[in-house]
Amino acid sequence: MRRSLLLIIIALFMLVLWPWPAGGNAQSTTAAVLYLPCVYSPLPTPTPTLIPGDVPVLLSPACGSNVTTVAPELVWLAAGTYWYGVDIATDSSFTQVAARISPRSYLTGPERRTPLLINLQPGVQYYWRVGYEATPGSFVWSLPESFVTGDMGDLPRAPMLVLPESGTTVYSLKPHLTWEQLAGADMYLVTLGVNGNSFTYNILSPYPELNVPFPLLAGRTYAWRVKARNASGWGPDSTVQLFVTAQNAMAD
Q1: Is beta strand 145-148 parallel, antiparallel or unpaired with respect to 65-66?
Q2: Which of 156, 128, 152 is nearest to 142 (CA)?
Q3: 10: part of which helix (H) or strand (E)?
Q4: Which domains are delineated in the chain?
Q5: Distance (Å, rounded) from C-alpha 190 to C-alpha 206?
Q6: How far apart are CA 71 and CA 161, in angstroms?
Q7: Residue 105's pLDDT band (boundaries 50, 70, 90)?
Q8: Cα-flanking dihedrals φ and ψ of residue 3, to 5°?
Q9: What is the pTM of this model?
């Protein structure tokens, strides 16, 4: 008798607590999603499989993490084929913009990587966001993320330019450029442009050499320079050297 009474009490208790739909014809509702706060941990955690849409999802750096460089690489996801721009600011409202990367297309995906070509200030908290240009000049932005830059550290020195020697005439519109390899450097930035104008082109190379990936103009004098990046950030630019593309240079 006592055991039967106990079973009846348990059954009534379950009836009260069970999430029955309200009303006989009520539809079941979708379970609420719980969004946990972003907590930085130095320990590796499993990376969830994200299915990005047009609006980018920022991956790294994030959660106010401390990075060891003043020129971090920004990693994000997006499935769209839009032109994407990047803002970096010292406030979450992006009224104090420290760096801005103009909209450009990204041929790879859905994971995109945007290297910074400048150094930020050391020991400063920055916010960053990525947006796609829905209409000219109008962006749809991701949710922002934040990080704190490291110390300036030991930056690489300026590399010495090797070839072509300054004042040399080249007979290819895609000339081969070489410079000094620096210990600890993981990336080099070559900037070049028609002499007397701005440095129009930025070309990244992990090696101390490259072939210009697009044809230059024949019969022009070009100025070029190189700077190196290591784990701390970018070093200073090299001295500027000039070369001349021959009138009969080939776009090989």
Answers
A1: parallel
A2: 128
A3: helix 2-17
A4: 57-148 (2.60.40.10), 161-250 (2.60.40.10)
A5: 11
A6: 23
A7: low
A8: -65, -40
A9: 0.75
